[in-house]
Amino acid sequence: MSLTLVLLIVIVLALIWLVFAYNRFVRLTKQSEEAWSDISVQTKRRHDLIPNLVNTVKGYATHEQGTLDKVIQARNSAMSATTPEALGKAENVLTGALKSIFALAEAYPDLKANTNFLQLQKELGDTEDKIMSSRRFYNGTVRDLNTAADIFPSNIIANIFHFAKREFFELENESEGKPVEVKF
Prior knowledge:
By secondary structure, the chain is mainly α. It has a domain at 35-128: LemA-like domain (de novo design (two linked rop proteins), Up-down Bundle), CATH 1.20.1440.20. It is 78% helix and 0% strand. The chain is built from six helices and no strands. It has helices at residues 3-58, 65-80, 84-107, 109-113, 115-150, 154-160. The longest helix has 56 residues, at 3-58. The termini are far apart. Mean pLDDT is 83; it is low at 179-184.
């Protein structure tokens, strides 16, 4: 084989690797965008359920306006968050505010038996599970993207084509990751 043929084969193989590496980054970027969208969809669902829950509780706990206002304020903050870090913080505050609403139910036996309240509570629990699953999927795709952007030789492709690493969706402290405990 001539030196020209060997050089040509090396160049072709390098170009093939370049195309595959580039496409992998595109795929990982799109997956992380899809995962972020899944989180947005589920948090939107959660945010849509909260006014119904607050209105149901209002009918029974009219003098608990401060608690209800905190929930609405936390919901509004979570809806305006745009980055994983900001959304994580806002959602953690919202989770704490929701815990206080469920704690109110202890003081109002009629509320605990209200079918609307029980249905909303069930739907919020289901939504929390979906949010948790979406967060795991998002963090998995971010892990893969960030790993590919860090390891050699794919980090060269990431730098050349400006594939940016992404932030993980993290809780501020471990206690916020535990499920809301509601006792009736």
